[in-house]
Amino acid sequence: MRRALFPGSFDPLTLGHYDIIKRGVTLFDELVIAIGINADKKYMFSLEDRVKFIEEAFKDEPKIKVTTYKGMTVDFCKKIDANFILRGLRNPADFEFEKAIAHTNRKLSEIETVFLLTSSGKSYISSSIVRDVIRNGGDYTGLVPETVVVK
Question: Is 10 annotated as a binding residue?
Answer without folding.
Answer: yes
